[in-house]
């Protein structure tokens, strides 16, 4: 552990901590266990490493005791790991208990997908997968409890799904606080992708995708990683930059917010709004007038940061992003503020307008004069045509003059098009290599994998919840008759 890592764990270890291991780095069955915190830029920073050929609680006690001796006792709010109890058991023994102990959502979903093969009927397998997603994503604690109870009952009552029901009841039903969304609202972390990304970088960037035969070479690679992280952090802090991934999420949410209609927004108070969607309602609350943190995760267009608003949608509560609903409300708030500023300066603008209107006509813009003159003449011509009846000779003369006017613009447009084509042809690089022909690809029929299971749509989720809550066998009950009306409609 370097001095930089000690400083980072003292500063950010109070919020959330992630730990996981990876294998395949060397030829001696030594696994690398990385200890990671999340900084203000939502980037993962590894603060400690451990090489060991065992993954027992005793080994992790020694690991965490070494960290405690270096930086003192750490009291954190959130502790995330994979489904290995040895990590948290050792942590609680050395550092004490943690309020929020979470399992990585990606690991949980992967385990579910792998064990869904216990259900032999492919159609029921798809339905159970969608029901799992609906139950897992429920944000209301009371509703979640009712959904869980009915879901497990339906699984156990159906012979085709009873085996998976026993697996789910034994491994997950007794500890929903570790994986359900309703228990991780506002924590700002859902997966261990920080560590997955870190381990991928270590394997393929610093170890070149090869096994390291000597442990000192592996340690040298990790020290180089920490050195590069220091430089990257200095650049981000100095230039106030955020990662392209975070920026793309903000931009995408802002783009989606433009599609929300203003009439769907109801203002409940000065700091609270409600947005009505096709399938649900979301509550947006304004937290702070101005963020006093060193926060760089902002939307410059809406002039807000990640701490300005909260929303009851999954994107905000679970993933910790600036969701599209927050963007929409922030735009309305910003427009209201601008309208107030415009209203305050209205009298001054009127005076300026009146001053401009009384100026001599020759002192105004010549371009505006010519444009207005042409518009007045066109309006006069249209009025005279409607008012007077012309003879055939006069009609021919008018058409000839109008054609000559149109030819002026047609010739100008044709000239511009030729100019553009010449510019395009002149910028062609004759030394540029030809594009490569697309290669062949296999047309063999692929085997079934868990990835063929698709997540449910919003409508399907609502139907599943409704069926479970009402205990309606016509909609969601998993039985041998397979009378899933909602599934057939959305198939």
Automatic annotation (TrEMBL):
The keyword Zinc-finger applies. Residues 300-334 form the SWIM-type domain. One of its GO terms (molecular function) is zinc ion binding. Pfam families: MULE. Keywords: Metal-binding, Zinc, Zinc-finger. InterPro entries: MULE_transposase_dom, Secretoglobin, Znf_SWIM. Transmembrane segments: none annotated. The keyword Nucleus does not apply. PANTHER family: ZINC ION BINDING PROTEIN. This is SWIM-type domain-containing protein. It comes from Trichonephila clavipes (Golden silk orbweaver). The lineage of its organism: Eukaryota, Metazoa, Ecdysozoa, Arthropoda, Chelicerata.
